[in-house]
Amino acid sequence: MEVVKQQSKISRRLLLFPAPFQGHLNPMLNLATILYHKGFSITIIQIPYNPVNPTHYPHFTFHLLNNSLLESYSKNSPPPDSVTVITDINKTCSEPFRDCLSQILSEAATIDQIQEPIAALIADPLCIFVGSVATSFNLPRIVLRTGSVSALLVYCSLSSLREKGYFPPQGTKLEEPLPEFPPLKLEDLPSETYHDLLETLVRETKTSQGVICNTFEEIEDSSIAKVQQTFPVPIFPIGPLHKQCPASAISISPQDQTSIAWLTTQAPKSVLYVSFGTVASMSKTEFLELAWGLLQSMVPFLWVVRPGLIQGSEANDPLPEGYLEIVAERGYIVKWALQFEVLSHPAVGGFWTHNGWNSTLESICEGVPMLCQPLFSDQFMNARHVSDNWRVGLKLEKGIKREEIARAIRKLMLEEEGAQMRSRVTDLKEKADLGLKEGGSSYKSLKKLISYLLSF
What we know:
Oligomer: single chain
Shape: globular
Number of strands: 13
Largest sheet: 7 strands, parallel
Distance between the termini: 31 Å
């Protein structure tokens, strides 16, 4: 991990406002830690849904929005789906955010404005009310893009893609290539259900004063160049954020450290790590096919089976009867694991993932090839780049059937095709590491970001 060195205090404060989902919280907290070590003081404004425990970050100041609806969501089991939560955040958080921002700015003006003026607000563009509120206070606003830049380019083009008749994609056309965005296929495009939100996200991003991107030039150089040409604001690709600082990853789910002890008993590169993130879910039928496919592959596996993974199920033990006895020592099943520790373990040789952007980056940064099973949103686009662009993974194209699963696992973990993917992903890992070192692309972009923040 490339540790950001502590520098002298800059005497400027930054306000950060993350969206309250694991894949959005961690990059924002990584960014906060990086900027803290560069000398900025940090204030985190939180939504009362999945709030971070402030004691984990005693060097930051925390403010919690007043919102009883979202606070009640944190106490519900199971919580609402992510689309419902995002919708309710954008319906109910504008005024609480305005009140909180007003309080922070008033305190800064009366207490420490001379010693420590507020430079800017860095926000997640999923919270689409932030721009208008920040503008009303004349507060510079930067957005943090936690997903890929290539997906952002597609979001920018949704209206023109609709005009060309790509929506809704139908029948055999699903497998046709999308010539505007190679190597994507029509089936990789986001559902029209999300278009209003995504197009508003794009507007929120374009009307900001800058875009920080959790990516690096060596894997998204052409997409970054196109965004820089399209957007009227500066772009700062400074990722992978989790490799730049010693920030502990905050997990919404409780950790199970026994997985590391089990991995230590396994041979190098022999274990397939299986995890589908904190939000994605699948049907009971898909879950059972996955379980039997893992068994039939004869490959050792570490499998995260978290509560809520199966749609509509709250069963404490969703596995088939007798499954654990059949698996015996070849598999290990936990409710959650600290992912970057697992992926960096020498026993892990592959990652079966939903291809959320953070998971995809983490796998690349540890040189671990992927078995791709996207479930919603940008995951389909990420998976296509993994399999067809960078060629560091296999995409399950024929549905979730146990025979196909077992065959794909063996190909990834045991055959020559998988070995070639491992070689290519190792090359990407080395490029990511070089980008963070002095003179590298992400290193230089971070220096530009610091200068830019100090210009406000």
